[in-house]
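Section 3.1: Structural characterization of target chains.
Under the original work plan, the team committed to producing a structural model for every single-chain target entering the pipeline before any wet-lab resources were allocated. The record below documents one such target. The sequence was received from the expression subgroup and is listed exactly as submitted; it comprises 90 residues.
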Amino acid sequence: MCKRSVELTEENHLQFFIPKGFAHGFSVLSETAVFQYKCDEFYHPEADGGIRILDDSLGIDWRIPTDHAILSEKDTKHPLLKDFESPFLV
């Protein structure tokens, strides 16, 4: 599994391209942030899916203590990676 992190800041003005079907997530390390997605298709809620962000098997250091993380209800309901059924051809 390829793991990569990039810190996007007001100072470095970086952007990050995420290909269709690529699992991704983000954590906000500042008090406030403006986050914007640019997509190649209209949003289709029925096609929205994900992997549980706090899945220990991912080995991701989110740089925020778990007890301080603010997660959406949607993000807490995703399956673990081992239980995820990808809609994309592997």
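The mean pLDDT is 87.
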